[in-house]
Design brief:
The complex is a heterodimer.
Chain A lengths: L1 H26 L15 H7 L2 H34 L3 H16 L2 H19 L7 H26 L3 H8 L4 H30 L2 H6 L7 H7 L8 H34 L1
Helix pairs in contact in A: 1-11, 2-11, 3-6, 3-8, 4-6, 6-8, 7-8
Chain B lengths: L1 H22 L8 E8 L13 H11 L4 E8 L2 H9 L7 E2 L3 H9 L37 E13 L5 H5 L15 E4 L2 H11 L9 H15 L2 E5 L2 H7 L5 E5 H8 L5 E4 L5 E8 L8 H12 L1 H11 L6 H4 L2 H10 L3 H5 L9 E2 L6 H16 L2 H32 L1
Parallel strand pairs in B: 1-2, 1-3, 5-6, 9-10
Antiparallel strand pairs in B: 4-7, 4-8, 4-9
The chains are: A mainly alpha, B alpha/beta.
């Protein structure tokens, strides 16, 4: 039985990680081929750093992801606090379903409807370029919002509701109580929400495809446009670097939280 | 501990805000932004030690006292480019569609005329590529300047495909049962139907419904021999020999040959498809003068040669095609490269462009194509399996609900 469960574990991890392993392997290939490994080289990494177009796309992607994640986190946190404090149970349920709809909605519906709205409003305002970086930002904030709300709400429920009350008893204004007490209690939820929003925005293709203008092209759009010809291996190199950064971040945060729990235990 | 996390976040936000502001300085000063919309990987962009053509253009403008920034973005198909432009929500100064799309955009009044008298390098474009569909050249009505051209042919692997079969030089190699499961076909309707129609000597721009339907029958008969319907996967599948026969563009064959020299290529004797991608200025461009300069610059010897050596497609430009350095470069990749890129076909050889089909024919083609793709024997099994799983789940749910209800009473 134990051997069986171990085999199952290996199978699951294999399915999850073998594709990435292949990608990493071929990013070090010395030729363009993805069929056979002809030798180790850093050719595609130097290639990557000498191609300005890829870099511009990467920079655009990061700008968009960070901006949309921050804006969505601020709005989403406020919304979550508001929803949490609602007294009317039915209204609360209704608001929750309304916020969940954009998440359940297929991306393509969100993308097309956003594009139609932007073009319509842009036409009314007489804009020449109604699609631009800003419309993309709005679209990304929109689809990020429900994820932030969903990750903040449980933290609010977990929090002892007497905490802000106690703070106010001790002389805090409600705003002070929020920033000094509540915010710290729900911070892990906010950070998870922000991370979620960031990664979702980072790899979104469908919505970006419909809402992008002439001035701003993100990495997923660039890679997709390469499909007429062969995708060059410098994209594998780029993906490998992104993966390595995320891997390092994960290890760092895990390491940190472990130390924190140890410290908390010691304090007790 | 938490404070440091906050500090890191604040610093990150400020840094990115600054980066954003610095990247959005488009409105600053007298900078002119030229929006160029091209196919992906269709320009010499500084990779693999090649010159960065857009940068070269910016420098060239600087010499003229103009502060120009090229904003270069890419698309994946004529149709997605058309839809973006058609939505009226974006404005570009240069777009590079293919032949039939240029035709359609001219018809729908989406393109500006190009003043070729101002283009110093236009004289070097071969006359036969200055017009589409063999029309009379009219200098007053020029809507496009050719960028790249090319021909479709059959790529095969000499290790697996016998010499006699290849020597037939025919489209019917794609229907040869000996190579069942090792043949690739285009994954877009126009090119896939094209292979049948060229094989049978039918006009690829026909509006005759019966012709399209009989072509579908042949595609269906071919389906069991086909490994898969692909576009860019052709590169990998042919290079690593998981497939032996595929129709694709001559220029792409040369780049595949670079990795696998067992591959070979021929133009089918029944005729083949020519394509032309042209630089156009869409209506609504605010920098028509600069756009014309850009087009002219792309025809210049340095830029055009750099692009041709990067993209590997055939060039309609004398300056490149008769440039010994370019010929030497291409020949070093494949000794017969120039014959494939710039073929001298015999008199009477059928080489046609895809024309813009009328709406009814287009609709018919798409319907037939869907019929081909959906009609699958494996599909039935999948439907049955899915149906069975859904039934089982539904049965379990109903059973549990009923059981619960019973217990309640």
């Amino acid at each position: 039985m134990k051997a069986l469960s171990r085999a199952f574990l290996i199978l699951v991890f294999g399915i999850l990680y073998i594709p990435m392993a292949v990608l990493v392997l071929f990013s070090f290939n010395s030729s363009k081929s993805t069929g056979n490994f002809t030798g180790f080289s850093l050719r595609w990494y130097t290639e990557l750093f000498s191609t300005p177009a890829t870099f511009a796309a990467l920079r655009n992607t990061l700008i968009l992801a960070v901006c949309s994640a921050i804006i969505a986190t601020v709005i989403g946190t406020l919304a979550a606090v508001g929803i949490h404090k609602m007294k009317n149970r039915y209204l609360k349920k209704a608001v929750m379903s309304v916020t969940n709809i954009p998440m359940m909605n297929p991306d393509i519906v969100t993308g097309i409807s956003m594009m139609l709205l932007f073009v319509f409003v842009g036409g009314m305002l007489g804009l020449k370029n109604s699609l631009s970086f800003w419309t993309m930002l709005i679209a990304h904030v929109t689809f990020n919002l429900p994820y932030v709300i969903l990750s903040v709400l449980p933290k609010l429920r977990q929090m002892d509701s007497h905490l802000p009350e106690a703070a106010m008893d001790l002389g805090c204004t409600p705003v002070q109580a929020f920033f000094k007490v509540e915010l710290h209690a729900i911070l892990p939820g906010i950070l998870t929400g922000m991370m979620m929003a960031f990664t979702l925005s980072l790899d979104d293709f469908v919505i970006s495809f419909f809402t992008s203008g002439s001035d701003f092209q993100t990495l997923p759009l660039l890679i997709y446009s390469m499909t007429k010809k062969d995708v060059t291996p410098d994209m594998y190199a780029l993906s490998t670097i992104m993966m390595a950064v995320i891997f390092a971040l994960m290890i760092l945060t895990n390491f940190k939280s472990k130390r924190e729990t140890k410290k908390a235990k010691a304090d007790r | 501990m938490k404070k440091t996390i906050w500090k890191i976040w604040v610093i990150a936000i400020i840094a990115l805000g600054a980066a954003l502001l610095s990247s959005c300085d488009g409105g600053k000063g007298d900078e002119i932004v030229l929006n160029v919309y091209n196919w992906g990987e269709y320009i010499s962009d500084g990779s693999e030690g090649s010159p960065d053509v857009n940068k070269m253009f910016e420098d060239y403008c600087k010499e003229q006292g103009l502060n120009v920034r090229v904003n270069y973005t890419t698309f994946d198909s004529n149709e997605s480019m058309y839809n973006k432009l058609r939505s009226g929500a974006v404005s570009y100064d240069i777009v590079i569609p293919s032949d039939y799309m240029i035709e359609r955009m001219v018809k729908e009044d989406m393109l500006e005329k190009i003043d070729v008298s101002k283009l110093t390098n236009y004289q070097y474009v071969y006359d036969n590529f200055k017009t589409l569909y063999g029309r009379e050249y009219d200098a007053e009505n020029v809507y496009f300047v050719p960028y790249f051209v090319g021909y479709v042919g059959v790529i095969y692997n000499t290790k697996y495909v016998s010499e006699e079969d290849a020597a037939r030089q025919s489209w019917d190699l794609l229907w040869d049962e000996k190579y069942s499961g090792k043949i690739l076909q285009f994954n877009n309707p126009r090119d896939a139907f094209g292979t049948v129609m060229y094989k049978n000597g039918v006009d690829v721009n026909t509006t005759d419904k019966a012709e399209w339907e009989s072509a579908l029958e042949e595609l269906k008969s071919q389906k069991s021999l086909i490994q898969s319907y692909v576009m860019d996967e052709i590169f990998n599948k042919m290079k690593n020999e998981s497939a032996y026969i595929a129709p694709y563009y001559a220029g792409d064959f040369i780049s595949m040959y670079e990795e696998n020299d067992d591959l070979a290529f021929y133009f089918p004797k029944e005729g083949t498809n020519v394509f032309l991608d042209g630089m156009c200025i869409p209506k609504g461009s605010e920098n028509k003068e600069i756009a014309q300069m850009y087009i002219d610059f792309m025809l210049s010897k340095e830029a055009a040669t750099a692009n041709a050596e990067m993209v590997y497609y055939a060039t309609p430009n004398k300056l490149v095609n008769e440039n010994p350095e370019y010929i030497e470069y291409m020949t070093s990749v494949h000794e017969d490269a120039m014959e494939y890129l710039d073929p001298r076909f015999e008199e009477g050889y059928v080489q046609t462009y895809y024309e813009n089909l009328d709406d009814d024919t287009l609709q018919l083609m798409n319907t037939l194509w869907e019929e081909l793709k959906i009609d699958t024997s494996a599909g039935v099994g999948i439907y049955i399996a899915c149906g069975a799983v859904i039934l089982v789940i539904a049965a379990i749910v109903i059973y549990r609900v009923v059981k619960k209800k019973k217990r309640m009473y």
